[in-house]
Amino acid sequence: MDTVETTTPRPHQESAAPRPVGESVTRLDAHEKVTGEALFADDLQFGPNMLYARIKRSPHPHARILKIDASRALALPGVKTVVTGQSTPGFIGLYLKDRHIFCTDRARFVGDPVAGVAATTEEIAEKALDLIDVEYEVLPPVLDPEEGVRPDAELLHPELGSYEVANFIFPQPGTNIPNLFKIRKGDVDKALSEAAAVVHHSFRVPHVQHVPIEPHVAIAKVDERGRVTLWGSSQSPFAQRNLIASALGISQADLEVVAPYVGGGFGCKAGVSMEALAVAIAMQVRGRPVKLRLTREEEFYTTFVRQGLVAHFTMACDAEGNLTAMDNKFFWDGGAYAEYGVNMTRGAGYSSSGPYDVPNVRTDSYCVYTNHPVGGPMRGFGQPEMQCGLEQCINRLALEIGMDPMEFRRRNCVKEGSNLVTGMKMHATGIGECLEKAAEAIGWGHKDPPSAPHKRRGKGIAAMWKAPAMSPNAGSSAWIEMSEDGKCTLGLGGQEIGQGTFTVMAQMAAAALGIPYDWVRIASPVDTKYSPYEWQTVASRLTWSMGNAVVAATKDARRQILELVARSWEETPEDLDIVNGNVISAKSGRSSSLKGLVVYGLARPGDQGWIGGPILGRGSFMPTYVTGLDPETGQGERAVVHYTTGAQAIEIEVDLETGRVEVLRGASAFDMGKAINPDLVRVQMEGGLVQGISTALFESLQLQDGVVRNPSFVDYRIATSADAPRDMQSIIVEVPQDDGPFGARGVGEHSMVPTMPAIANAIHDALGIHPGAPPFTAEKVYLAMVDAGLVK
Amino acid sequence: MREAHPGLPDFDYVRPASLEEASRFLAENPQSARPFMGGTDTFVRLRDGFWKETRYLVDVKNLDGRAEITFDPRNGLTVGAAVNMNQVVADPQVRAHYPLLAQAAHRVASYQLRTRATLIGNLCNASPAGDTLGACLLFGGILRVHGVEGFRDQPLAGFFQGPGRTALQPGDIATSIRFPLPVPGSVGHYEKLGRNVLSDLAIVGVTALGHPDSSTASGHRFHLALASVGPVPVILRDLLTQAPLTPEALDEAAGRAMEACHPIDDVRGSARYRKFMVRNLSRRALNRVWEGLQSGHCCE
Amino acid sequence: MAHHRISVTVNGSVESVDVPSNMTLLTMLREKLGLTGTKNGCTAGECGACTVFLNDEPVNSCLVLAVECDGAEVRTVESLARKGKLDPVQQSVIDHNAVQCGFCTPGVLISARALLDRNPDPSEEEIRDALVGNLCRCTGYVRILDAVKDAAQVGAASETGGSR
């Protein structure tokens, strides 16, 4: 099998990337999405044999389950089965196996699945829920991560020490801490005592939800031999296959996951959230498809949420404005189960200096169990929350010593060769350029008058970095199959969730093979039975990792084609090339269409048989160079594969009469190594900026005693068409990634990472008030102005 | 925890042939039958698990002659019960004579919701956050109600009794609302603060109406209606009748609005913030109205 | 619960459908007629993914009872393209990269088409207002606004004036 060299440019490549890499070709999926033909999981048809599932959920944040009596529910006509934790005793989880599919002895959050019903209609299933009698013994809840780490706190997972865990996660048995990640670099205390300026601030970043417009849906069917098919809206078909099969004690080969288009994911459809429930229920009604779809309300509190964070920062610099020390404490509200969230704690830890060169860093990043909704991955994977406070502190420190915040950042930002917090050496990066270009785009340093006397204007900037947070050996694979006319089908296991990955993969395949873009088809939907392995569609890793696999597969096919033609023409493959779908020889000037030869091979002269055969290219990629980090110091050779860096600069106006913050313009500049499709990169930046603005201004899950008080669009507001700023500039910076396809690295998540602090810094610039923790609602800003005496 | 269901609960859809039949059916099933028009609020509440006793939904919007807006230069404007919000917004007569009503209707939710939402439905729903309640109250709206005893007029003053509670009795169906002619020269303005710029429910909504009045020292008379700051709309009448009409006088009137309301804390906003916003938005709305009165143009 | 036999014209074709009282127009389209282009995002009239034309006006089909549509005319996203030719607003959405995950897109297209039918030359403010009931989590909206604005110009240039 072909693997990818870790150098760019590619061997067959000139100085510029081959077409259509670098071109803003039309999305492959656009046409079917505007006609309504594109199929999403809930659109699949299963016929009248299908059953509908609904879930009985705990109304208590923390309770012991004493008794479940389903007899009344089972007696309801149309109810086919009621499933409880007794039938699914196994553990499930991505990095830490700390949850059951259904609760067994305890419920740990409001919404924890206690039982599941399958019935002939969704209405009957729903009615049956009221007929399931559950007896609880209510237990005291843990509702704050800083309370949760206290020695006398109620233990939510007394069995923590016995859970199966990945070797880079460090649970603390006997506590509510499923992961503690530490950084010890340099001498922080000494640096603090010698500093010219020190700032210390704390932030509470609230829980938010991903809010894909498509709610979760899964359909499961189990045959008489126990083989499972699962159709779902999924970012992670292969991870789901693996985790659910493990939990059920069946072979991964006997669980097939089919994943059509995803109507928005942002992380909440990664790993396993509700899909295992459908499978567990389907186990009891063999042969019948069972559909489980979440209501919008369930979407808000029963699937993954973005964890809350309590963060304490102390940071210092010298008189010249060089950062000298950071002392960080993070308490992540991991929620009831931290199977996935534990790795955010780690990601925040190994990125805890922000994108800065800081010689002395001490970080304690605690993941803490609470009786809140389950914290899971969300676009940015901990970085928006962590850098929200960090980038506000950077701003304060700059102002404290009288430096321009942009200049302060440029001076301190990481550069090639910087010694990072983990001891890893920084690769080449364009963060300085991103800062300069973003600042320039909004006229940094120049203050325009407000649009009305009752308004104030301000500008803010924030830098960011983020590495793909994943298992160190997360792999990708791909195949490419040729059809008779030379067009091809590309098999891949990464998912099209709106980011345009199918398009970008087709571009890379076309470029690497030497065929037109419109000759490439994607084998979709992704189906674990037929598609090649892909770890998960997360971490902004597909363009880079799956792209490497696609290039490898394509080069494998290309090699086969060139060897075939070379034999036939009695030339050497090195003298041949494929250009625009034709094999050409630089030496002899011969040319041949791919048509026919890629399937039927070529005839030997004189009717003396054939050579070749159907061309099938295959490739895989797995980073092999990420090393472990010391549990006490967080130091190691290479913590991550790479960092994508960037910056945002934002101009706002605050209405002094209402406190409303309006974003007038926002400039995003990110270094994605190489923009395979520049316009798709720009729309990622725009969409991320608006999602960032939405979380900065509107969004929080209002938790009270473990209950989400606003689980609906009525009271969980997201940005609408009226809230998006007209003026969004998206700037592409390209410092090539040495192990990326065509020099590319990911950029999907990054554009919402710096938005909250950039807006906070702009609010400070406008009002002289530090708004602190998001969301910076009109109410929060107005009352802060009242408290500061700015308005009466 | 909200118990929103995936779909609507069981009920029988009933479409009576006449108002009489509808009123009789509703009166005979006071607990189990509910009238509905656009359904935009009814269906959401049913799905959310409210009104568990509902067995019949009675569609009262297709009864004769109820989808019309008529204007009579002597008697004013009549809006039928089946008239949707978009029709109110776009109607030339409404825009000419009651622009405040069009402005308030325009601030309800989204275009596609306003295709179904009706003015009468908004009133009967009696949400404290209702965008159009203030305008309807300040224009002196009188509902035409059909009950088991036949038709009667029901002034909006006294109609609202609490969140979701009105003076309507079982069997009552509001069939239209009539607005007398506004005082000549009236100017209105609706100032709404939601969390988003558009489409949200009001954290605070302030409706202001002013008109020339030769009997007052100021030569004018102003009225305010406040949304989302009490169980029913808070009305302040006959403001700014003293001379002179200075910015300070407008400020003071806005301050009176602040004193008059007693909002609560909820997920949308705190009582403290709402009080400030009642003052600031009242000031803004009164100023807009005053500017309009001075320029002689109705403002929206 | 009562069932009703209704007759409804969907995308130009007269359908006779048996619907229970509590079935929404959305469910009827998706589950009775197999027209899955119209999406369910919230079932509460907030997200707009289920927007369809009902008697030529856009509605949230999750907030309309199927039985109320007896005798009515319904048009969904599947009706926008005619004989393989995309509606100008569909083409414009493609050209502007105004589609990402695509789940809000059918509803956005209906709202946009409805706007252009009643106002062939909308201002940006009018476009924002017309789309405020269509939530999109991917695009950041501005591409959609631009797509609708350009579709209006295309419509004006060709004087076709929309799909009616």
Task: Provide tags for this entry.
heterotrimer, A: 792 residues, alpha+beta, Aldehyde Oxidoreductase, domain 4, Aldehyde Oxidoreductase, domain 3, five-stranded mixed sheet, C: 164 residues, Ubiquitin-like (UB roll), disordered C terminus
Report on the structure:
The complex is a heterotrimer of chains A (792), B (300) and C (164). Chain A is α+β, with helices and mostly antiparallel strands. Helix content of chain A is 24%, strand content 24%. Chain A contains 18 helices and 33 strands. In chain A, the strands form 9 sheets. Chain A has an 8-stranded mixed β-sheet, with helices on both faces. In chain A, α11 runs antiparallel to α12. Chain A starts with 29 loop residues before the first helix and ends in a 5-residue tail after the last helix. Chain B has 300 residues and is an alpha+beta fold. Chain B has 3 domains: 12-59, 2-Layer Sandwich (Uridine Diphospho-n-acetylenolpyruvylglucosamine Reductase, domain 2); 69-179, 2-Layer Sandwich (Uridine Diphospho-n-acetylenolpyruvylglucosamine Reductase, domain 3); 187-295, CO dehydrogenase flavoprotein, C-terminal domain (Enolase-like, domain 1), CATH 3.30.390.50. Chain B is 31% helix and 25% strand. Chain B contains 10 helices and 14 strands. In chain B, a hairpin with a 2-residue loop joins β6 (142-147) and β7 (150-155). In chain B, α9 (247-260) runs antiparallel to α10. Chain B is globular and about 60 Å long. The model of chain B has no long low-confidence stretch (mean pLDDT 95). By secondary structure, chain C is of the alpha+beta class. Chain C folds into 2 domains: 3-79, Beta-grasp domain (Ubiquitin-like (UB roll)); 88-158, [2Fe-2S]-binding domain (DNA polymerase, domain 1, Orthogonal Bundle). In chain C, 33% of the residues lie in helices and 16% in strands. Chain C has helices at 25-32, 88-95, 105-118, 124-130, 142-158; strands spanning 3-10, 13-20, 51-54, 57-60, 73-75. In chain C, strands 2-1-5-3-4 form a 5-stranded mixed β-sheet, with helices on both faces. Chain C is globular. Classes of the chains: A alpha+beta (792), B alpha+beta (300), C alpha+beta (164). The A-B interface holds A 54, 57, 59, 110-111, 122-123, 126, 293, 295-297, 301, 657-658, 660, 698, 702, 707-712, 714-715, 717, 719-720, 722-723, 777-779, 782-783, 786 and B 1-2, 4-7, 10, 193, 195-201, 203, 267-270, 272-273, 276-277, 280-281, 283-284.
